[in-house]
Write a structure and sequence with these properties.
This protein is α+β, with helices and mostly antiparallel strands. It contains five helices and seven strands; from the N terminus they run βαααβββαβαββ. The protein has a seven-stranded mixed sheet.
């Protein structure tokens, strides 16, 4: 595998991050989310640039870089779920890797980095949401110690799309 470096995401990464996020959705979620929704997803670089520039304290955004090109992105921070209150809960908000880099260790590297940063910030456990039908992602998260915790949600993405919440300790036990 090529040398992969993880570094903080900056506004200069906005185009690469937004492009890989949309490419990831279109590749990973085809057949799980209506095609019309996926096909209409814009690559909104200005929105991504603003979100990165206005990132709240305690929110991590990191990118995986190979030979100067961004190939993956992770965002994490305090848990946003109403049933997980308190400062000791962390959440992986998003993790996307360019499809050509799937199954090359980039996603594992990004998630390991993010959970480590959350543990160092004093988070006891980490949650993430995954589409219920996304069996490949669910298996991947399970290899990293995440397990379903019984919570479910319904997204409206052109049709109802169920998702399930996974959880694990922030630091390996």
């Amino acid at each position: 595998m090529a040398q992969v470096a993880v570094r903080a995401c900056t506004v200069l990464d906005a185009e690469a991050v937004e492009s890989l996020r949309v490419a990831g959705w279109k590749s990973a979620y085809r057949g799980m989310i209506p095609d019309a929704f996926l096909d209409s997803m814009p690559v909104d670089v200005d929105r991504r640039r603003r979100r990165t520039a206005e990132r709240p304290d305690g929110v991590l955004e990191s990118v995986a870089v190979v030979a100067g090109s961004v190939v993956g992105w992770v965002s994490a921070g305090p848990c946003r779920d109403d049933d997980r209150p308190g400062t000791h809960q962390g959440e992986i908000y998003a993790c996307y890797v360019l499809p050509d880099w799937w199954r090359c260790g980039v996603g594992r590297l990004l998630l390991t980095h993010a959970t480590g940063v959350l543990a160092q910030a004093g988070r006891d456990d980490v949650t993430l949401w995954v589409l219920e039908a996304n069996s490949a992602a669910r298996r991947f998260y399970e290899t990293l110690g995440f397990h379903p915790d019984g919570s479910r949600n319904l997204l409206e993405l052109g049709a109802p799309v169920p998702e399930v919440r996974y959880r694990r300790p922030a630091a390996p036990r």
